[in-house]
Design a protein that fits this description.
alpha+beta; two-stranded antiparallel ribbon; 17% helix; globular
Amino acid sequence: MTFVVTEACIKCKYTDCVEVCPVDCFHEGPNFLVINPTECIDCGVCVPECPANAIVDEGDLSADQQIYLGLNDELSRTWPVITASKAPLPDADDWRDVQGKHDQLIAEA
């Protein structure tokens, strides 16, 4: 099992989770973070750090969020590793509780 960054991260990109990750498994795209599933050690320390509640255990993914398991794997192969916290996107608080943001995902880094 691995942890997965879900749709809730899109257009927010809070990086509180990055700071606590012991294995640097987070990767950064233009408006979204992902977790490399082969690097993740399933420790879960990132989960409570996310203000958007965007990080979920693979086994707890809802049906509509299953696509993010594959996206985390795929995008982590091309996006750079992020190892330090940085400011969220400027309008992150406006997007934090918005549902149905998948069409806002920018996948090209």
